[in-house]
Design a protein that fits this description.
It is a single chain. By secondary structure, the protein is an alpha+beta fold. Helices cover about 55% and strands about 10% of the residues. It is built from 14 helices and eight strands. The protein has a six-stranded mixed sheet, with helices on both faces. It has a two-stranded antiparallel ribbon with strand order 2-3. The chain starts with a helix and ends with a helix.
Length: about 350
């Protein structure tokens, strides 16, 4: 049998005995190490239930110690195949490694855990690698190759564990770097090449980008829509930024400067961010909403009700009735844009429009 065939058979045997008691698991793995890994029970190379003296009276019994000749190679701690890992299993295996002065240990439960015990290192910091019992698992095939009698090599096993630890560290770093900001940056660069920077920025900032692990999407599938739907939820203040009249006055004053041509949208959003703590993308959403209201045109990214009412009120006070009607027209077009995605209506925007129209009738 090839290493892959042996591993797949081990997976099958593991799955078939998930609910068996530990006594049956013991018999099975003694047979596996004999038939698939080449250790000979008649020569004592599969040493089961060895008693280890601790102190003057206490004795502990190991499940399996694999030997080559008279030399102990590694310890195997067995649990029921449906048992999930817990720290007590690890402590038990490590206690055996300490007593036997060994470096390599194997814990078998619902998964395989391979340990490289380093003396002098805290028990909870000992290096280990996890292998799932899945068919054709490359790590499982390597497990067979690493622990077979004719090719057992402690350095090879230690290298494998270090490699798996490094892979976990790299995956953690990549997850930290995989942010909505990174995706937005890459999309802007992609679209800038074909359509120009201004168009690319406007497009990307009209969308919410949400990075959600698949495991969360499996339990909360409604989140999947957030990844593909243009910004529909009202833009709230950034986390940690409270809605206050002072905050809105700052936003409004810089939006006016953009409208008058004294600042660019980018410059103004940076100033708003530095003074309020709001992120620049949110600041730009407010600026664009103000500009759209002044011109009576559609804007796409929603802002919350209090902010909307503040802007409409200030536009009326500072720019007069014509500008106010433009703002109401912009809200009407914004509500229609939102409704076109079939996710309901922006009720608060519709209320503001209805209130304005009712006031005009009187």
């Amino acid at each position: 049998m090839t290493a892959n065939e042996r591993w797949n058979k081990i997976v099958q045997l593991h799955n078939d005995t998930r609910n068996k008691p530990e006594a049956d698991i013991q018999v099975l793995w003694e047979q596996i190490f004999t038939d698939f890994f080449g250790y000979k029970r008649l020569l004592g190379e599969v040493d089961n239930h060895r008693q280890i003296q601790i102190g003057s009276s206490e004795r502990v019994i190991t499940d399996i110690i694999i030997k080559s000749g008279e030399a102990d190679l590694f310890v195997v701690e067995l649990k029921r195949h449906n048992a999930a890992f817990d720290s007590s299993m690890e402590r038990q295996l490590i206690s055996y490694l300490k007593q036997l002065q060994l470096n390599i240990g194997v814990l078998i439960c619902d998964k395989i855990y391979i340990y490289n015990f380093v003396f002098g290192k805290p028990d909870n910091e000992q290096d280990k690698a996890k292998i799932d019992f899945t068919p054709d698992n490359p790590d499982g095939v390597r497990f067979v190759k690493m622990f077979v009698k004719d090719s057992f090599c402690q350095l090879y096993i230690q290298g494998f564990i270090n490699e798996k630890i490094k892979a976990i560290e790299n995956a953690t770093m990549m997850r930290r770097e995989l942010t909505a900001e990174l995706v937005a940056k890459l999309l802007k660069a992609h679209f800038t090449e074909s359509y120009g920077e201004e168009a690319a920025i406007e497009l990307v900032e009209d969308f919410d980008i949400l990075i959600v692990p698949k495991i969360i999407l499996e339990t909360e599938p409604e989140l999947a829509q957030t990844n593909i739907t243009p910004q529909a939820r009202p833009e709230e203040m950034s986390e940690g930024v409270k809605f206050t009249a002072e905050t809105m006055e700052i936003i409004y004053s810089f939006a006016q400067k953009v409208h008058s041509g004294n600042l660019t949208s980018t410059e103004a959003s940076r100033e708003i961010s530095s003074k309020t703590g709001m992120n620049t993308a949110s600041a730009k959403a407010y600026i664009r909403a103000f500009q759209a209201m002044m011109q009576g045109i559609e804007y796409k990214r929603a802002i919350n009700e209090r902010s909307t009412r503040f802007l409409v009120s200030q536009i009326r006070a500072d720019y007069g009735e014509e500008a106010y009607r433009n703002a109401i027209d912009a809200l009407y077009k914004h509500a229609k844009y939102y409704a076109s995605f079939g996710q309901g209506n922006l009720r608060y925007v519709e209320r503001i429009v209805d209130e304005a129209n009712a006031g005009q009738e009187h």
